[in-house]
Each structure stands twice: as C-alpha cells, then as structure tokens.
Design brief:
- By secondary structure, this protein is mostly helical.
- α1 packs antiparallel against α11 and α10 crosses α16.
- The protein starts with a helix and ends in a 5-residue tail after the last helix.
C-alpha cells in the first residue's frame, strides 16, 4: 500500500484543510453573514449541480479510469484521452438546449413554494458543467498516478474563494444576490485550475480517432451516469426536494447538519483518489488476491479513521451547535442519521471502485434505478411529515439498503469480502468509547469543552486501536508520528 498510503495521507491532510475552511464558511460565515434565505439558495443550487454533474460529464471521469489501463501504447492512450475529452459534448449540447427551452415551465413547477430561487435556477446546469469537466480533467491526472495537486484544487480553491466573497458580503462590497453568482464563478475557476494542471501533467495530443471498443465505452459511460447519479442523489437529492415542500430556509439548517456529518467521509474521499485507478489495474491484470487484500485494508483503515471522526462529532454535537446562531439549531438528529449513513458507506472500503470495474457492472443499473425510486418515494413520504429530519431518515434507509445490495453483489459475484475479525474488534472499541464519553460534560465555554473532550476521546481511541493492533497501516502511521515528535526512539 506504499503509493496508496503516501498519497492517501497527503490527500487526507489536504482534504481536512479544505474541510476546515469549509467548516468556517458553513458554520460561521454563511450563518452570520448571509442569512437563511441566501444560504438555502446556495445549498439548493449546489445540490442541483451535483445531481447534474454525472449527466454533464457523461460518466467520462470513471470511463477514463476504467479503460486507460486497457490501452498498451502511448499512441492508443493519447487517442483515448482525446476522444473522452470531447465525448461528453454529444450529450451536453442537446441537454443544454432542452434546459434553455423549457426553463420557465421547469423552474415554475419545481419552485412554486420558493419563487426567490427562480433567478438563480439557471446556475444549476452551469455549475454542473463546471463540476463535470473538472472531474474529467481530474481523472486525466489520476490515471497518471498524480492526485495530490488535483485534490488541493478540488478541496481548497473553491472554499477559499467563497470565504473571500462572504467577507465581501459582510463588508458590503457585493450584495447577497451577487454572492450567489460568485459561487458559480468559483467553480469555473476550479475547472480552469484543474485543466491547467492536467495539461502540465500530460499535454493532450489531439488524435481524433474513434476507439474500436466504442460500444463498450458508451455502455459503461451510461452505467456511470446512472450509478454516479444514484451516489450523488443519495447525498444531494434531499436538498433539492426540501424546497419543493418546505421553505427554502430549511435547506440552510439542513446544509449545516449535512456539512458536519459529511466530515466522516473525508478519509474515504481522500483514499479513493488513488485507490480507484489501482483497483482498475488489479482487475485488468486479474490479481484477485491483491485486490482482496486492498479491499480489506481499505475497509478497516476507513473504519478506524471514519469511526474516530464520527465519535468526535457525535460526542461533541451539542457543544458544536452552541457555537452557531440559534436559528440553525434544529439539525442535531439530522447529524446523527446522516452520520450513520456516511459511516456505513465508508466501512465498505473500495467497494464502489470494484463494482464500476467489474464485468457485471450492467446489473448494478437495476440497483441504481430501484434506489432512486426508493429514495424519491421515501422523501415524498417523510419530508411533508417530519421536515428535514424526515429527509435525513429517508436518506439513512436508502443508503443502508443500497450499500447492503452492493456489498452482497461483490461478495457473491467477485468472491471478495471487506470484513475480518478486526472489523468486530474495531466496532467494540467504537461502542466502548461512545458509552465511556457520552455522559461527560465540562462546565466551560463550548470551544474549551469541545477541545478537552476531543483530546480525551482521541487519546483513548488511538491507544485502543494501536494496543489491539486493529490495522498494520494505522500502527505504522502512529509509530512514524511518535518518532517524528521524538516521543519514542
């Protein structure tokens, strides 16, 4: 796991920096500078754009990773990359025309409860396009085993621009309406930055040749649109449905809770950047034992790191909500439900990377269609009844069912299993740590309480995982850190 461990650590560090900046934005600057209305508008636009992203990219980002290793010569790879760069335009152009032609009826129908969103509705496909081509250029560098700088652009650049613009709102340099448009421009800047880095890694050589396996590429790309769309919808479709039933200000509360719980998935996002192309290569080379080893290692390491983050969030959640305006305090149960769904998702390791590279991937289309219908149905039932808590519950149920189906699929079809006895040991540590610290409270300021409790939880959790040898990689990282700090020889 040398290259995986090295780039995963760097990516995790960068991703946490990005999330740190994002936390300042989401929990403090948005809530104090922007207000619930415009915060809700931004959350809705970005969620809609995330949903459209797989359509705009036409699955090219995963198709590049999947098929790049199939081409043996540099000339074939250059032809493939050139084709994939222009391939999404076949879908983007007609989709954009349809959206433009039916803009008024679509926006009027969906936004009847929140007409204030209508002037910004067109930003959804624009930001989705920027996100889509960003992912394509990101895949471009991933297949060349370079993910760190791309991750820096992905996780930090937009958040820094947004932070600057939020201060511009506070200082009355720009209006709140203008801020919404600058968020869209931030994603355009992200795309430009990623493109410049991609061509520095590998300058495109334009060889316009239709690949011999065109049919396979198109079929796989269509699969990615569905499966990728499902994955995105599990994260963002609820924030698009909430304005259809409730005031858009509820989306601001929901966005705060979602941001807090999404931190659990940071290690998975970081590790996936480098694990995905390695998984594809191992499957092409038919190295089953190495793939199974990678599957188990990714699962247990993500369980340890993601579980630790989940504990820190769950055990500090009441104090965290004391740090933000009271108007946003209605999402604690959302944090718990979404947090559990994120945790279940990450403990499956590189499950998704395996599925998208298996020869059985077409079957997963049925899972995806079923999941989308299930998710829409559950949200239609629970949002009117319970608001944002109902939406979170619908998401939790959907993720549990969908991820369980995918797990069973990989076990049955690929004879791969992510769990070992160490998985059970890790769960026991999580439960003990939760019960041990859940009732601890300090009579100090919220920041002091969170800091003290987090230090105690982290010390106990790290020691327990190290003492019982849950993961070799985790122990190596702890040993290296202690030596660097000169705490051991």
């Amino acid at each position: 796991m040398g290259i995986v461990q090295s780039q995963s650590i760097k990516n995790t560090f960068i991703t946490f920096i990005g999330f740190g900046i994002g936390a300042i934005n989401a929990l403090f600057l948005y809530t104090n500078f922007l207000g619930k209305l415009h915060y809700g508008i931004v959350a809705t636009v970005l969620s809609g754009a995330n949903i459209m992203m797989p359509l705009m990219a036409f699955g090219a980002q995963n198709t590049i990773i999947r098929f790049f290793s199939h081409y043996k010569t540099e000339k074939e790879r250059e032809e493939f990359l050139t084709f994939m760069l222009f391939f999404p335009l076949v879908f983007i152009i007609p989709l954009s025309c349809l959206f433009y032609y039916f803009y008024d009826p679509i926006s009027s129908l969906w936004l009847k409860e929140n007409p204030s969103l209508k002037p910004f509705f067109w930003l959804i496909p624009f930001v989705g396009l920027c996100m889509g081509y960003f992912e394509i250029f990101y895949a471009w560098v991933k297949v060349h085993m370079q993910s760190v700088v791309g991750n820096l652009i992905s996780e930090v650049l937009v958040r820094v621009i947004v932070m600057v613009m939020l201060f511009a709102v506070q200082w009355n340099w720009i209006s709140k309406d203008t801020f919404v448009y600058t968020v869209a421009l931030a994603y355009f800047a992200q795309l430009v930055g990623m493109k410049l880095y991609a061509i520095s890694v590998k300058m495109p050589v334009f060889r316009f040749v239709i690949p011999e396996n065109l049919r396979e590429i198109v079929e796989y790309s269509f699969f990615i649109i569905v499966s990728g769309g499902v994955a995105v919808m599990l994260v963002d479709f609820d924030k698009v449905m909430i304005p259809h039933y409730k005031d858009i200000g509820q989306n601001a509360l929901y966005a705060v809770a979602i941001f807090i719980s999404t931190v659990i998935a940071v290690p998975s996002r970081a590790m996936t950047q480098i694990v995905a192309p390695i998984t594809a290569r191992l499957m092409v080379e038919n190295k089953h034992d190495e793939l199974d080893d990678l599957y188990k290692k990714s699962a247990i390491n993500l369980q340890i790191i993601g579980g630790g983050i989940m504990l820190l969030i769950f055990l500090n959640i009441k104090e965290l909500y004391h740090l933000i305006p009271k108007d946003y305090s209605g999402g604690i149960w959302v944090v718990f439900m979404i947090g559990l769904s994120k945790f279940y998702d990450i403990i499956l390791g590189n499950n998704n990377s395996i599925i998208v590279n298996t020869k059985y991937y077409r079957i997963v289309l049925l899972f995806g269609i079923f999941t989308v219908l299930l998710m829409i149905g559950l949200n239609m039932v629970f949002i009117p009844l319970y608001g944002i808590e109902g939406s979170a519950f619908a998401t939790l149920l959907t993720v549990l069912i969908y991820d369980s189906i995918k797990l069973i699929f990989v076990v049955k079809k690929m004879n791969l299993f992510p769990f070992t006895i160490k998985t059970i040991h890790s769960f026991i540590i999580l439960v003990v740590c939760f019960l041990l610290f859940f009732f601890w409270d300090f009579p100090f300021h919220a920041i002091v309480n969170v800091t003290l409790k987090s230090l105690l939880i982290s010390a106990f959790y790290i020691y327990a995982n190290y003492r019982f040898g849950i993961s070799e990689e985790f122990m190596q990282i702890v040993d290296a850190t202690l030596k660097r700090l000169k705490l051991v020889k």
